[in-house]
Specification:
Blueprint lengths: L6 H6 L2 H24 L2 H18 L9 H18 L1 H5 L17 H19 L3 H12 L4 H8 L3 H22 L6
């Protein structure tokens, strides 16, 4: 989903209004993306706040060579990688995966619980992948980014993306086979 602000609106609206619209539209997606890297809800929220601060301070220089979405994803991924390289992270033992409710459904509580459990289990398998494979799977299948948006976000070429997706799917299939999880190709 793209932001409702078009290029002419960027010129006419003030930065605070722009940031507010961006935060409303992308905060959940960016928090989830950060979570997939750092595997901690609170840290992911902190990173998302840092992304919006950077967005606010650099919004005037956004030139529109990519979409706002890919620009924000790139900032988020860079913030996550910086965090993971930081001395603080290396000294702290991760607390494991925290689960969070993401959606409501009209199904029975039992089927909702089963579906949520299966989704969480699959996410846990994806999170076992090395970061370069995990990010392409999450961006393509979970965040629904197009190949072009992923290429722009990760600053990789088309061949690299196709290779990473192929290798990521193969590794994920091996993990699923090892765990006895039924899956399709």
């Amino acid at each position: 989903m793209e932001t409702s602000l078009n290029e002419e609106d960027w010129i006419e609206t003030n930065t605070e209004s722009q940031l507010e619209a961006i935060m409303i539209e992308y905060s959940t997606e960016l928090s989830f993306l950060a979570y997939t890297y750092v595997k901690n809800i609170e840290t992911a929220k902190d990173i998302t706040q840092n992304v919006f601060i950077k967005c606010y301070t650099h919004l005037h220089s956004f030139q529109g060579h990519s979409s706002i979405k890919t620009w924000l994803y790139r900032i988020t991924i860079n913030e996550c990688k910086d965090y993971l390289r930081s001395a603080f992270f290396r000294r702290v033992i991760p607390n494991g995966l925290l689960r969070e409710e993401h959606h409501q459904s009209t199904h029975s509580p039992e089927t909702d619980l089963l579906a949520k459990s299966e989704q969480q289990e699959m996410l846990n398998y994806v999170l076992q992948l090395p970061p370069k494979y995990r990010e392409v799977i999450l961006l393509f299948y979970i965040q629904d980014l197009s190949h072009q948006e992923i290429i722009e976000t990760l600053t990789i070429n088309s061949h690299t993306l196709k290779t990473r997706l192929s290798r990521a799917k193969a590794r994920l299939n091996r993990i699923l086979d090892k765990e006895g999880f039924s899956h399709g190709e």
